[in-house]
Amino acid sequence: MNDAFARPPARRYDYERDPAAIYRQSFAIVRAEADLDRLPESLRDVAVRLIHACGEPDIVADLAWSDGAAEAAREALGQGAPILTDVKMVEYGIIRSRLAARNEVVCTLDDPRVADHAGDLATTRSAAAVDFWQDRLAGAVVAIGNAPTALFHLLERIAEGFPRPAVILGFPVGFVGAAESKQALSENPFSIPYLTLKGRRGGSAIAAAAVNALAAGLPEEGR
Amino acid sequence: MNDAFARPPARRYDYERDPAAIYRQSFAIVRAEADLDRLPESLRDVAVRLIHACGEPDIVADLAWSDGAAEAAREALGQGAPILTDVKMVEYGIIRSRLAARNEVVCTLDDPRVADHAGDLATTRSAAAVDFWQDRLAGAVVAIGNAPTALFHLLERIAEGFPRPAVILGFPVGFVGAAESKQALSENPFSIPYLTLKGRRGGSAIAAAAVNALAAGLPEEGR
After folding, report:
1. Please, what sign has the CA dihedral across residues B78, B84, B88, B90?
2. Is A117 a catalytic residue?
3. I need a surface site. Which of A134, A203, B156, B184 has the fewest CB within 10 A?
4. Cα–Cα distance between A208 and A214 in angstroms, integer?
5. What share of chain A is helix, strand, coil (3-state, %, to 5)?
6. Is A169 helix (H, G, I), strand (E, B) or coil?
7. Catalytic residue among A36, A46, A50, A52, which?
8. Do A55 and B200 touch (CB under 8 A)?
9. Mean pLDDT, to the nearest integer, of B186-194?
10. d(CA B83, CA B71)
11. Which residues on chain A are in Cβ contact (under 8 Å) with B5?
């Protein structure tokens, strides 16, 4: 770095530079625009963070959850439950400093056994990777931010006797199976607590934001 | 893994399991629903992938670009230009197998010097991290998927003499500065090619999708 860049650039644009002010203003705008009244108190801060992650206050209308889902997630996270994710983007969106219990964050998608296992099962790598969660799944926090097939496969495995996670944060995104997988989650017959976003919207940023919100509320980190 | 899980689960749900079919169906739905006609031919495949990443065909109306931006990005990527990102989520969303030139993907946010530098400049860590791009910035592909301050800061540094990237893929998201930073990008007086999404929407998945699309078109990887 040149010495010249030890100084701030000349201000060409009028923008907020203070991280705490950015968070404060962002959350204030979200609270002003989003219809948080339809949510239980335990989910309002979570919804603020989900909206903050995608820029769309109207996702509130598509949120679906089971009673006590936020409490189940907070308790599991506080007790150090592992966090299981379908993609690296979710893994890297989780803010480690907010995991007071230093929870393990696991994405098995790149496990060298996954490609062959997907071939054996005639399914996607994302679905096959779920089978490698088995030893950590009991009481875990599952955060799915990309693949509908991972969520469907998990529900099918649980039906067959896979261990039960503490909560499923289900945010697959897209046009083929995403809405359907989240509908299946919201109708899961295993009484597994869940939080999800109906329809096509979702994604890794929202899934990570859900974990971050449930891990420690609404902090004001630098951004 | 138990032997029991060497077999596929019993099919409780009717969903597409074939990765190639999922991509094919997804892209077909996007092409049917999105108004791609308003885009130049060089950006239509890119737009399909951006929509695929967020589930929202209507983002097409908010896309903005400079003439030749896609060509500039494809040429830079093909020649091995480094890819500079503001957050790890973008870094991990870029599919390495699509980078035929084995481009370096760099996120400096976790550089140990960044926190102090942000304090010295009285700005965010995301903005301060941009200063550590300096040595790689000439001819680089910049992909910003989170922080408006990173994009504003980059434009201010370029005004002061920072090297010029080949293209800026600008997708900050959120309520404070995101729309304004993308407006500034689209009005940049440096003639730097750009692709951006006006308004509040954006994010790391869209930024990574832009790189992936410009790196190799529309493949059908496993998902």
Report:
1. negative
2. no
3. A134
4. 10
5. 50, 10, 40
6. strand
7. A52
8. yes
9. 97
10. 16
11. 131, 134, 157
Domains, chain A, ordered by start: 61-212 (3.40.50.10230)
CB contacts of A202 in chain B (<8 Å) are: 55
> Which amino acid, B142?
V
Residue B187 makes CB contacts below 8 A (sequence gap 6+) with: none
Rounded Cα distance between B141 and B106, Å, is 10
* In B55-130, alpha helices (H): 69-78, 88-93, 114-121, 125-130
pLDDT band for position A221 (cuts 50, 70, 90): very low
Q: Which of A17, A89, A222 sits opposite B92 (nearest CB)?
A: A89
Cα–Cα distance for residue pair A14/B137, rounded to 1 Å: 24
Read off the pLDDT of each residue in A26-55 and give the average, rounded to a whole number: 97
Note if the pTM is more than 0.90: yes
Pairing of strands B83-85, B141-144: parallel
Chains A, B: CB pairs < 8 Å: 213
Give the other-Cβ count within 10 Å of B100's Cβ.
11
Residue found by looking up tokens 């890119």 in the block: B46
Average pLDDT over residues B82-91: 98
Cross-chain CB nearest to B134 (options A1, A30, A54): A1
